[in-house]
Every structure is written in structure tokens, then in C-alpha cells.
């Protein structure tokens, strides 16, 4: 008989995880089988390799081993406090964990384009006079694409958009 560990997602249900299996895989399977009934939204899944940070969680109880995790998303201090990327840990015992909001790095080039007031954005007259330069055109699709291509965190940003659906 194959040993399995129980992964309790705080307030959301239970998943069964094989030794050596990534916790995120077990959670995805459990969600597919309707075992995480109280999960308020779709499980956050991105790269599945510890890079994008979208599956951030905190282990509240239990032992686990870690695979490489991006330091951009889990600092050494975070790691010491039990924060993990669910795709980059596997259980060594039963676990209790809490899903945490991803800490996504800023996307400065896209942020500047997105925050820029543009002609198609209606504004109250007093705001328009204060802004002074609302005649600038909106960023084009090519500008946005260039921003994404220049941005090392484009995949992360994409994942954030995915979460907002
Ligand atoms: S899914 Fe990308 S870090 Fe876990």
C-alpha cells in the first residue's frame, strides 16, 4: 500500500498527496474531484516550477521538503516563517497550510503605460484642467506588447491577470 499524506487547506478542505509529489499537484487533483469545496476561487496555478510565485502558501503544521523557489517571491526570512510555493514543496508528514496572496513584483514599464492618462479616459472637468495633458493618446497594442516583452516579469503579470478573472 502506498503511503499518502493528508494536506489540509485551512478552511477549504483536504487533499491526499503522495510522498515526493508536489503539493500543488495534489491540490489541483483534489479541486478537480471537488474535495476543496470551500476554496473561494480557482486554485492559483502558474508555472508549476517555483518561478512565478502565484501559488504562495504558508505551512502552519507539518514537515516538508522544498525544491528551488524564486527568491523574488519567497525570501529567506519568508522561508524561515513557513512561507512556500505550493508547487515547490512535497510533504514529509501530513500538512496544514493556508493559501496566501501572491506577492507580485511591480511591472514598472507596463505600470507607466497603464497609469498614463489618455484621451479616451473621461474625466471631470476640474480633473482634466488639473491634469493638463489628457490629450496624450492611449498606449497602442504595440506599446503594451513591447512593455510586456521588455519586462522580465511578464509571465507573472499574466498570471495576476489570470487570477482576476
Ligand atoms: S505555480 Fe508558479 S511558483 Fe508555483
CATH architecture of the largest domain: Roll
Major beta sheet summary: 5 strands, mixed
Tell me the number of strands: 7
**SS class:** alpha+beta
Q: Roughly what fraction of the amino acids lie in strands?
A: 15-25%
Along the chain, the helix and strand elements come as EEHEEHEEEHHHH
What is the CATH topology descriptor of the largest domain? Ubiquitin-like (UB roll)
Shape: globular
Structural domains: how many = 2
Bound molecules: FE2/S2 (inorganic) cluster
Give helix % range.
25-40%
Number of helices: 6
Distance between the termini: 41 Å
Uncertain segments are 126-136, 151-165
Query: Would you tell me the overall average pLDDT?
Result: 78
Radius of gyration: 20 Å
What is the spatial order of strands in the main beta sheet? Answer: 2-1-7-3-5
Give me the secondary-structure topology.
Blueprint: E1 5-9, E2 13-17, H1 23-32, E3 56-61, E4 64-66, H2 76-80, E5 83-85, E6 89-91, E7 95-99, H3 108-115, H4 125-131, H5 141-150, H6 154-164
Parallel strand pairs: 1-7
Antiparallel strand pairs: 1-2, 3-5, 3-7, 4-6
Bound molecules: FE2/S2 (inorganic) cluster (FES).
FE2/S2 (inorganic) cluster (FES) binds near residues 50, 51, 52 and 87.
